[in-house]
Design a protein that fits this description.
0% of the residues lie in helices and 43% in strands. By secondary structure, it is an all-beta fold. A hairpin with a 4-residue loop joins strand 13 (176-181) and strand 14. The strands form 4 sheets. A 4-stranded antiparallel sheet has the order 1-2-3-4, with no helix packed on it. Strands 5-6-7-8 form a 4-stranded antiparallel sheet, with no helix packed on it.
Length: 196
Amino acid sequence: HTPVKIASDLRFVAVSVGYNHTCAITGTAAELYCWGDNTRGQLGIGSPGSLNGKNVPTKVELPVRWASVCAGGIHTCATTELSELYCWGDNARRQLGQPGTLTNDLSSVPIRVALSAQSVSAGSTGTCALSSTGLGTDADAYCWGESTNGRLGTGTASPNLAFQNTPMKVVGGLSWKSIVAGASITCGVPVSSKAP
């Protein structure tokens, strides 16, 4: 197999690949484009009938400048240059960070999460972010979504299917350089080079 150029004249400076969709941020304009499967609204393109997939990069219409994006299993989250955090797509495991439930357990447009974030990681069924200001101090980690078996690091370790709807601070008293949400595990690198 050989790399194939995306059918677009857009120039991207960041890209993230989910289960069956991709999102990328352009350079100068800091616009966000997504393409691929949209069964659960993970492209963030909104409007009635928007659940059809896209074969070419399609702009996520929100009047912001995007700083980072992470395509998860079947949801997507992104931060803006003002540290605003938005998520969209599947919410069956509460991975969009909203306090209540959503119609059909999804959102096909970006919805704001109540956390100022410098970075975000969207996993299969959960999401984690490093805060910038607001709920916590710089480098505090917050996670939400499926919390089964303690995968969010929030002190809940139920062996049964369990959820955390909104951002909850990761316990342990560490400051974080980075955090990554996976399929059923979350890992992070603390600011201090060694964890306790």
